[in-house]
């Protein structure tokens, strides 16, 4: 084990907003040196060192998938990129945001998601979702209360569990709430007015 590895082990495992730290965090959580991770991936140690170098731009989702598989990290590639920095996580570049969200699925992160809900005005729903710490039922209640406070229109069930559609200031709003895992819930939000969708995501994250 090199001194560099020992120094890396002393660093916090909370990812920073760059691709290099995501590779390092995954490796450290698995208790691997750069050499050991390289052996699992079939690449030399110096390449892993390059991936972990601040500012290196060659890290992409296929590479993150390989690292996750090799280390057993909880990497959900169901999520792609955020359209903008809305809450919780400051990001410097789209690429950094992409791998940050894919790697951690942190509570409060805004992530672009695909859901099974179909809407009358937009067809299949490609949304930005919010991952929140909390029970599905409690989050579902919070979401209903948040949206009810924004509109005098009824929340119409879409016939899908934990979903509804309504109108806010003349814009269609569709929401689908699903269980993400045992501790977290994901709220899909879609609207014909991007500002309204952003507002809903922020409000339910900050409740």
Characteristics of this structure?
22% strand; TATA-Binding Protein; 207 residues; 434 Repressor (Amino-terminal Domain)
How many separate helices?
Answer: 8
- Identify the CATH homologous superfamily of the largest domain: Kinase associated domain 1, KA1
Main CATH class of the largest domain? Alpha Beta
Shape: elongated
Largest sheet: 6 strands, antiparallel
Low-confidence stretches: 1-18, 76-110, 116-125
Model description:
With 207 residues, the chain is an alpha+beta fold. It folds into 2 domains: 13-104, 434 Repressor (Amino-terminal Domain), CATH 1.10.260; 110-206, Kinase associated domain 1, KA1 (TATA-Binding Protein, 2-Layer Sandwich). It has 8 helices and 6 strands; from the N terminus they run H-H-H-H-H-H-E-E-H-E-E-E-E-H. It has helices at 3-9, 19-29, 34-41, 45-51, 61-71, 94-104, 136-148, 194-206; strands at residues 110-119, 123-133, 156-157, 163-168, 171-179, 184-191. It starts with a helix and ends with a helix. The model is unreliable at 1-18, 76-110 and 116-125 (pLDDT under 50).
């Amino acid at each position: 084990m090199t001194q560099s590895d020992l120094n890396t082990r002393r660093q916090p495992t909370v990812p920073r907003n760059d691709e290099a730290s995501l590779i390092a965090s995954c490796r450290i959580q698995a208790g691997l040196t750069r050499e050991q991770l390289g052996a699992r991936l079939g690449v030399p140690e110096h390449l892993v060192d390059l991936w972990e170098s601040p500012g290196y731009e060659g890290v992409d989702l296929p590479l993150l998938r390989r690292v996750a598989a090799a280390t057993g990290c909880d990497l959900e590639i169901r999520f792609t990129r955020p359209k903008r920095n809305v809450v919780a996580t400051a990001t410097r570049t789209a690429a950094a945001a992409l791998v940050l969200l894919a790697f951690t699925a942190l509570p409060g992160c805004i992530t672009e998601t695909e859901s099974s809900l179909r809407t009358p005005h937009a067809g299949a729903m490609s949304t930005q979702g919010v991952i929140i710490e909390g029970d599905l039922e409690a989050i579902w209640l919070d979401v209903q209360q948040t949206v009810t406070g924004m509109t005098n229109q009824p929340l119409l069930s879409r016939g899908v569990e934990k979903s509804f559609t309504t109108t806010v200031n003349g814009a269609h709003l569709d929401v689908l709430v699903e269980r993400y895992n045992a501790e977290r819930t994901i709220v899909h939000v879609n609207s014909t007015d991007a500002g309204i969708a952003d507002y809903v995501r922020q409000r339910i994250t900050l409740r």
